[in-house]
Task: inverse folding
């Protein structure tokens, strides 16, 4: 038990050290940082602005009040932002790590290879999405005269973390394909576009798409079901307790695929 | 070699399955649907062991299997068959524990963080390898003495020259004082001074910490200056494993005598000498070259002509101001090995 704690302590410390390393690079290019922060914020603002103006003429969507839709949209930005902070290496995994051979160096260090790939770089400007998302959630909650209880705040935090884990796991799983197939672009783009589906009430989609977003690529559990629970939509209440389970399950699938990929890599080296 | 080797490798093989890539767009399309696989024996049944504190040179032409061997020794690749026991570990089975006890430098790639000052990379590596602050300071001191790191510790890695970067990479690989150091072409692309720096450093580390070093290189000066032992691999098979001196003894075929004529009046006598040489050159190589007006080089097969005999003949024929007798450069020997001229059959017992 003590050993596990020491391991956790060591990895938390290393995470801090890796992040500090990244931060030093970003500080070294200060102008660059502010520009990327600005573009990132503008992108979030424009995509939310589109939804906002669209709903100036629509008051309800599938029995959801427009401010509930904004709440959902805002909440979806929180796990998404956390995911974006960490996901940069997942897209580049196939090309820089596998094809250009950076992965050999990862294997020569006495830390978990997955830990290194996830935390060797960040995209800190995406943290603005978490903040923007929170602001939108608070604003739309006010418009809905939402009353925050301590449990709601706790649930929001847990849901957001689980959502980030779901996103990371799905894209990590897709990245592990690079262990088997050489392809610089990777298989991420179509799944990336699927994320947007989770920003609206699932009830507007056909049964197939609802099934897909719940049980195959469970983005619904990252955004929709948590928001439905927070907003008290009774018909989706049963799904809320599944959120952490789905997060653990998707991560387990991704981690298993990673392990198989490692085995494959160590037998072929490519 | 000591009785208890630090690294022992037995019947090690690594076979890859690859397919023939067809050329062109049509070929590429065919590739998508139909592939003909074949087995490439990158490393084929090699056996060797390395004792504590040894420095061993590992050479071979491109694609001979050097890197594959290093990758198996460092735990990156799992062998198809055979065994490795290195510093008490089976590398690929106990990877995380094992890599703490080795240092690795790939000459072509850096393990440092590209955009920030060198010292920051060292600090992070200190945490990764759990090196105490005291040990860290002590080693940095030594590295600075031999490698002169201080001058560029605060420079971003991307602004370093290749030689400076290589010095930093070496220091980074040795920060946790590993008993074993693997170097894959550590002097590639470096100028003479930088190469000398690296070699001096490796000698100092080897003396001070008894670090065992296995290095691959294309620069035979590295080997001559650092290693008493050399292993040659080609097409996956180990062709030679033994002392460098032994390789010369066994394979040195030609020698050359360079001599400088006393004056211009020697020309007709030299021509006569040349004529007499070509008459007696039936058995083996005996070749005279005029390097310039005064300097001549005579290459000969040392198995068919004795050196002293030749010198006597030269002295009898022409008046000579100076003499140099040289062995065939080691490069020439290695070139002959790679071209398959020697060791065409597996090396038998030494004569």
Result:
């Amino acid at each position: 038990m003590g050993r596990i704690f020491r391991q956790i302590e060591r990895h938390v410390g290393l995470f801090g050290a890796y992040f500090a390393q990244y931060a030093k690079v970003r500080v070294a290019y200060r102008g660059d940082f502010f520009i990327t922060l600005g573009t990132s914020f503008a992108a979030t603002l424009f995509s939310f602005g589109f939804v906002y103006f669209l709903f100036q003429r629509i008051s309800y969507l599938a029995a959801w009040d427009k401010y509930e839709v904004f709440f959902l949209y805002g909440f979806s930005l929180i796990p998404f932002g956390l995911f974006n902070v960490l996901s940069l290496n997942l897209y580049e995994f196939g090309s820089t790590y596998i094809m250009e051979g950076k992965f050999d160096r990862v294997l020569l260090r006495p830390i978990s290879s997955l830990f290194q790939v996830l935390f060797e770089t960040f995209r800190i400007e995406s943290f603005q999405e978490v903040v923007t998302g929170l602001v939108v959630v608070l604003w739309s909650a006010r418009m809905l005269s939402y009353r925050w209880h301590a449990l709601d705040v706790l649930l929001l935090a847990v849901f957001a973390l689980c959502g980030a884990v779901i996103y990371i796991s799905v894209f990590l799983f897709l990245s592990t394909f690079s262990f088997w197939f050489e392809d610089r672009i990777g298989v991420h783009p179509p799944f990336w576009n699927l994320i947007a589906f989770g920003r609206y009430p699932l009830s507007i989609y056909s049964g197939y798409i609802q099934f897909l977003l719940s049980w195959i690529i469970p983005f619904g559990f990252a955004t929709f079901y948590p928001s439905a629970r927070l907003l008290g939509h009774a018909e989706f209440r049963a799904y809320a307790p599944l959120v952490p389970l789905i997060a653990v399950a998707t991560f387990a699938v991704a981690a298993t695929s990673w392990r198989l990929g490692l085995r494959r890599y160590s037998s072929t080296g490519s | 070699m000591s009785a208890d080797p630090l690294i022992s490798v037995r019947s090690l093989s690594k076979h890859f399955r690859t397919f023939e890539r067809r050329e062109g767009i049509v070929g590429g399309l065919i590739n998508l649907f139909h592939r003909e696989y074949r087995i490439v024996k990158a490393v084929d049944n090699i056996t060797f062991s390395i004792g504590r504190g040894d420095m061993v040179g590992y050479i071979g032409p491109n694609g001979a299997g050097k890197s594959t061997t290093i990758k198996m020794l460092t735990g990156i690749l799992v062998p198809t068959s055979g065994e490795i026991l290195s510093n008490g570990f089976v590398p690929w089975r106990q990877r995380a524990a094992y890599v703490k006890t080795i240092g690795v430098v790939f000459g072509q790639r850096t393990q440092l963080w590209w955009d920030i000052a060198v010292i920051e990379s060292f600090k992070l590596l200190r945490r990764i390898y759990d090196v105490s602050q005291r040990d860290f300071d002590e080693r940095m001191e030594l590295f600075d003495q031999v490698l002169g790191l201080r001058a560029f510790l605060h420079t971003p890695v991307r602004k370093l020259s290749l030689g400076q970067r290589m010095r930093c990479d070496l220091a980074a690989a040795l920060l946790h004082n590993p008993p074993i150091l693997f170097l894959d072409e550590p002097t590639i692309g470096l100028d003479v001074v930088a190469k000398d720096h690296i070699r001096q450093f490796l000698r100092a580390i080897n003396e001070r910490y008894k670090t065992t070093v296995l290095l691959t290189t294309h620069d035979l000066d590295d080997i001559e200056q650092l290693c008493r032992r050399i292993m040659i691999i080609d097409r996956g098979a180990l062709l030679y494993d033994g002392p460098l001196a032994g390789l010369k003894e066994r394979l040195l075929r030609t020698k050359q005598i360079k001599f400088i004529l006393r004056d211009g009046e020697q020309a007709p006598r030299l021509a006569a000498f040349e004529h007499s040489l070509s008459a007696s050159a039936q058995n083996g190589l005996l070749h005279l070259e005029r390097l310039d007006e005064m300097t001549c080089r005579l290459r000969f097969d040392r198995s068919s002509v004795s050196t002293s005999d030749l010198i006597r003949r030269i002295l009898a024929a022409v008046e000579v101001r100076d003499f140099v007798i040289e062995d065939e450069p080691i490069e020439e020997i290695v070139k002959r090995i790679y071209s398959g001229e020697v060791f065409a059959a597996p090396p038998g017992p030494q004569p």
Notes: The beta strands of chain A are 60-61, 64-65.
